């Protein structure tokens, strides 16, 4: 088969795959980034399907669609899923320090409050701080033997299952993993954790667009990313670079969370936009992705992070607590988990 023929056949395959629609998200599996590593070798089609544990029927649909290809002898589909996990989401930011981990922890807490089974994977290899934000010190990770090999057992804290690269590092020692070692550790993290049944797995990604972030996105069935930004333009320029990377790997951006949006006056309740305003909104319009929430600057968010009490749980009625609750509801609506959960 010549290259032009391969290209033609590949185009045919992509067109058919675009007819397979994920029923909850109501979008085709190609634009959802679920199909990767598509290759055509002689009369065979090879592809990887990145799906959640509840989406196995998509494999059958792909097989059925591609059965109409007269030239194709067989379709080989490799299912890439995290066992037991339905929806895997990435939490990302263009640069460090904008409150990505804070957002990840609080969204996890808000989802959990509403009855969802939630896991948090702290994959921020450059600054893994989720254990502390949930009130955990250094803890030993248990390894269990399963029929599919040895697995790490996540810790469970405040109803959230947690696994962190930070738990594997020595205290006060920066993680200096690079290249193949980093790649191996990250893939182990994605594939070798025994999560049990989860509605949501949130992955706290390293900031920026480095190797670690790209590896995680490519190797995991992330079905969308939530971008955290602050209102300043500089942060927003970084977010744009980030978005470009997600588009290249084909992972959709589900929405934007603007953090440190405003300060609420303790006396009169007025809002002061310390870092300017409108950045998140502008980005959301440009991306045609929803602005999921604007989180105020609140000292309780900071102290809650230091003491392991996420504001989404400890101060549910606060403005920030309410924003996180709304974000959780928006996610339930997007993924149609709403009917399975009863506390809304
Ligand atoms: N809305 C907020 N109000 C007050 N403090 C906040 C807010 N959001 C985050 N912070 C504080 O800002 C600091 C940085 O937040 P966080 O660690 O979540 O950022 P990050 O983007 O994950 O950073 P890194 O990339 O370095 O891990 C923390 O001390 C956190 O408590």
Automatic annotation (TrEMBL):
InterPro entries: FSCA_dom_sf, MIP18-like, Mrp-like_CS, Mrp/NBP35_ATP-bd, NUBPL-like, P-loop_NTPase, YlxH/NBP35
Any one Pfam family match given in the protein's UniProt record, by short name: ParA
Gene3D superfamilies listed in its UniProt record: Fe-S cluster assembly (FSCA), P-loop containing nucleotide triphosphate hydrolases
Domain (MIP18 family-like) ranges: 11-77
GO biological process annotation, one example: iron-sulfur cluster assembly
Keywords from the named record: ATP-binding, Hydrolase, Iron, Iron-sulfur, Metal-binding, Nucleotide-binding
Residues in coiled coil: none
Residues engaged in binding ATP: 94-101
Domain of life: Bacteria
SUPFAM superfamilies named among the record's database cross-references: Fe-S cluster assembly (FSCA) domain-like, P-loop containing nucleoside triphosphate hydrolases
An example Gene Ontology molecular-function term: ATP binding
Family that this chain belongs to: In the N-terminal section; belongs to the MIP18 family.
Physiological role: Binds and transfers iron-sulfur (Fe-S) clusters to target apoproteins. Can hydrolyze ATP.
Classification via HAMAP family: Mrp_NBP35 (MF_02040)
Oligomer status and interactors: Homodimer.
PANTHER family given in the database record: IRON-SULFUR PROTEIN NUBPL
Name of the protein: Iron-sulfur cluster carrier protein
The organism of origin for this protein: Anabaenopsis circularis NIES-21
